[in-house]
Amino acid sequence: MRANFAALLLVLCALVGHSAFAGVRAVDSVGITVNDMDRAVDFYSKVLTFEKESEREVAGDAYEHLYGVFGMRLRVVRMRLGAEHIELMQFLAPRGRPTPVDSHSNDRWFQHVAIIVSDMDQAYARLRSFKVEHASSGPQRLPDWNPNAGGIQAFYFRDPDGNHLEILQFPTGKGADKWHRPAAGRLFLGIDHTAIVVGDTAASLRFYRDTLGLKVVGTSENYGTEQEHLNNVFGAHLAITALRAPDGPGVEFLEYLAPRGGRPIPGDTLASDDWYWQINLRVDKPEAVPSSGFTQTDGALGFARGVIVKDPDGHASLIATEH
Fold this sequence. Notes:
Elements: H1 2-16, E1 24-33, H2 37-46, E2 51-59, H3 61-67, E3 73-81, E4 84-93, E5 111-117, H4 120-129, E6 133-134, E7 140-141, E8 153-158, E9 164-169, E10 188-198, H5 201-211, E11 215-223, H6 225-231, E12 237-244, E13 250-258, E14 277-283, E15 295-296, E16 305-310, E17 316-321
Parallel strand pairs: 1-4, 5-9, 10-13, 14-17
Antiparallel strand pairs: 1-14, 2-3, 3-4, 5-10, 6-8, 7-8, 8-9, 11-12, 12-13, 15-16, 16-17
């Protein structure tokens, strides 16, 4: 993990030194590992109203080098909700290791996408009608004493593969303007951000803000019974930092000030392991991307060159260019 981080710094220092590099242009999508693609597509489309846009299978030396998995064959389905995308990833070969059954929301491998809803009560009732697995005890309304989070309603649940997801409703005056426009009967509107548990906000800022160029757009410190029941972690006290690229959903840090016992991402994590997610980032200027460290692909997954890097905690990002 440390070697990956050091390698990224070397590559991106070269980028920053090139006059054409202007940082990450967009958070293109969030990659989510699943074990049964057909079941996952059925869940995201029927329950959450995502629309399937494309499906591809890739294999070969270039993709083995990119993902660091020998003998791999990867099936990827790209799905859209509103203006945002996820990419479901199933490693047909080799199969990875299962997520620990005793995972908690403060473990460092935790990651979710926050899906904005137009009506929390209706959205929760819909999830219950499909018998989704709870991760929170139920929807929580964050208290008004918290100026940056007060009035937000949220609920954590799991997809059929155990991946964490969140539905979120912003009150008037909070969240992007687009989440308050007339929804034309839509219940699930789009993805506001992906959230990751981090061990040290300052170290994560050096990676995502100072190296990749994302901008901090908000902070909050959340605690109390509502936050505890949302995360299902007794005594949960979080420092939250929200960042954004010029386009796409945001990236949100969740640093647990308490309890501090969350487990780190295993250092030998592979892209085929069930707990693996990746944030898919796009850069604009192919001429600014040095060939060293980047893999040339056949373009089947929508990018020509890419490199997968790890942040200080081991969360993965794919940095890619279309040319």
